[in-house]
């Protein structure tokens, strides 16, 4: 994996319409966070590289690790699935 040594630090904030806004100093992106049955959906690495904003394409591993930590601390299940989406904020 070719991630830079200076990895962005992400913050996570739920937003109405079942979205989780993921922000860093490099930019923001949005992934799905269901509210009825609480869960966060992260795309697989392959899908991430196809759909993530250009600035984020090389940070899947770091992003997933930080998201996993946030989900664990928030007691929210995390699902890594090919059907999950990622979009610009």
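-> sequence recovered:
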């Amino acid at each position: 994996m070719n991630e830079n040594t200076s990895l962005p630090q992400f913050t996570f904030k739920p937003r109405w319409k079942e979205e989780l806004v993921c922000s860093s100093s490099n930019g923001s992106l949005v992934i799905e966070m269901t509210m009825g049955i609480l869960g966060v959906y992260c795309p697989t690495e392959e899908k991430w590289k196809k759909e993530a904003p250009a600035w984020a394409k090389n940070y899947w591993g770091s992003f997933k690790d930080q998201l996993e930590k946030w989900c664990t601390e928030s007691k929210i299940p995390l699902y890594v699935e090919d059907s999950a989406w990622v979009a610009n904020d």
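The CA atoms of residues 60 and 68 lie 12 Å apart.
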